[in-house]
Amino acid sequence: MYVCICNGVTERQVREAAEAGCASLTELTMRTGVGANCGSCLSSADAILDEVHNRRDLPLPVLAQAA
């Protein structure tokens, strides 16, 4: 699915950038071009960025028990 139609940025590209360490919406715009024109996609891109970061930050209870 396209997140940014103006620059042809897909949801997959946003997720890949977030998983590669992209930490902010500004950095995401610089890496992918998302939101650089009209900006109407910024809320969707930010939600995907947050989702990836929240999923990555989930604690692993198995590791806590092993320590």
Can you characterise this structure?
The chain is mainly α and 67 residues long. The protein has helices at 11-19, 25-32, 42-56, 61-66, and strands at 2-4, 9-10. The chain has a two-stranded antiparallel ribbon. Helix 1 (11-19) crosses helix 3. The longest helix is centred in the C-terminal third of the chain and has 15 residues, at 42-56.
Biggest sheet overview: 2 strands, antiparallel
Number of helices in the DSSP assignment? 4
Name the helicity range.
55-70%
Strand order of the largest sheet: 1-2
How far the N terminus sits from the C terminus, by CA atoms, comes to: 41 Å
The whole-number mean of residue pLDDT values reads 89
Poorly predicted residue ranges: none
Strand-and-helix sequence, N→C? EEHHHH
Spell out the key features of this protein.
67 residues, mainly alpha, 2 strands, 4 helices, two-stranded antiparallel ribbon, elongated, 57% helix
In short:
This protein is 57% helix and 7% strand.
What is the element layout, followed by pairings?
Blueprint: E1 2-4, E2 9-10, H1 11-19, H2 25-32, H3 42-56, H4 61-66
Antiparallel strand pairs: 1-2
Helix pairs in contact: 1-3
